Amino acid sequence: MSKRARGSETTLLNLEALENAVPWEELGADVVDPLRRALDTARRERPATERAKAADAAREATFEALEDEERAEAACAAYSAASILFADATLAGGDCGGGDEAVDSEAAALRACDLAMLRGGVAEWATITEPVVRAASAGGGRGGAPV
């Protein structure tokens, strides 16, 4: 896999497959709107930091729905999608929430993919996360230290 520059605007993800894995009709606007913004940010190939912030906001938007029995299953899919978008952006050099400490972007991307599959199911999300997992496992593929 070729290396991409840190801060890359391009995504490794098949955004159509990711979007199709989300049960949009079962989610409220409180979850849908931030996730649509995160997808749009990725589609428009915005800078990695902007994509990471949008994806993180989409993840946070799922928290209340995850605790609601009626919406939990659909919210798990939305959380998984947002986490995968976050992983991709983080691997590209987006801010992964490390604050003052340097955070290993590859490890952060793998953690986000792990959480996505734990929450949403390996069978449902493994194919979608594969390009990010492979790039992170190979040392980033976009300019970072190997894990």
Explain this structure.
- With 147 residues, the chain is mostly helical.
- It is 62% helix and 0% strand.
- It has helices at residues 15-20, 29-43, 48-61, 63-66, 72-91, 105-120, 122-137.
- Helix 5 (72-91) runs parallel beside helix 7.
- The radius of gyration is 14 Å and the shape is globular.
- Residues 1-7, 99-103 and 141-147 have low confidence and may be disordered.
Brief overview:
This protein is mostly helical and 147 residues long. Helix content is 62%, strand content 0%.
pLDDT average, as an integer? Answer: 85
Shape: globular
- How much of the sequence lies in strands comes to under 5%
Distance between the termini: 16 Å
Helix and strand succession? Answer: HHHHHHH
Number of strands: 0
The rounded Rg comes to 14 Å
Main structural class: mainly alpha
Could you list the spans in which at least 5 consecutive residues all have pLDDT below 50?
1-7, 99-103, 141-147
Instruction: State the helical fraction.
Output: 55-70%
Q: How large is the count of helical segments?
A: 7
Largest sheet: none
Q: What structural keywords apply?
A:
disordered N terminus; mainly alpha; 62% helix; 147 residues; single chain
Write the layout of secondary structure elements.
Elements: H1 15-20, H2 29-43, H3 48-61, H4 63-66, H5 72-91, H6 105-120, H7 122-137
Helix pairs in contact: 2-3, 2-5, 3-5, 5-6, 5-7, 6-7
